[in-house]
Amino acid sequence: MTANQDVRLHLQHRLDVLSNRIGAIARDLRRPTDPDWVERATEVENDDVLEELDGASRAELAEIRLALERLERGTYGTCARCGRHIPKARLAARPSATTCLTCAAV
Do 85 and 41 fall within a single domain? Predict the structure, then answer.
């Protein structure tokens, strides 16, 4: 298995995890509210947290889809700013990275 195949599998797995999380959040947000006002207040607070998690998950999902597109185009691992190679350690830590550390710091 090539390095790109490993990356693709990792990204696809993460995409699946995030898709499942987004679906679970959507189901939780559609649930009927509790008639008790104290419980309803707690639910509203929980819904706020769920909405934040949903937003973060959707943002990561978009980044992963873009990374998969870069893999298809053959530009994965190339800095979008300077065109240099993005080190493997950075890609291991953040597989959706589009810039090298130097450009990311700017």
Answer: no
Q: Under a CB-based contact definition with an 8 Å cutoff, are residues 95 and 56 in contact?
A: no
- Residue-wise pLDDT tens digits, 9-51: 999 999 999 999 999 999 998 888 777 777 777 888 888 999 9
Q: Give the domain range for residue 70.
A: 3-74
Rounded to two decimals, the pTM is: 0.80
Residues 83-99 pLDDT 10s:
999 999 999 999 999 99
Burial of 76 (0-12, 13-18, 19+ CB in 10 A): buried
Domain count, the chain: 2
Contact 23, 61 (CB under 8 A): no
Among candidate residues 74, 50, 65, 54, the one with its CA nearest the CA of residue 95: 65
Locate 82 and state its tokens.
């300077």
41 and 9 in a common domain = yes
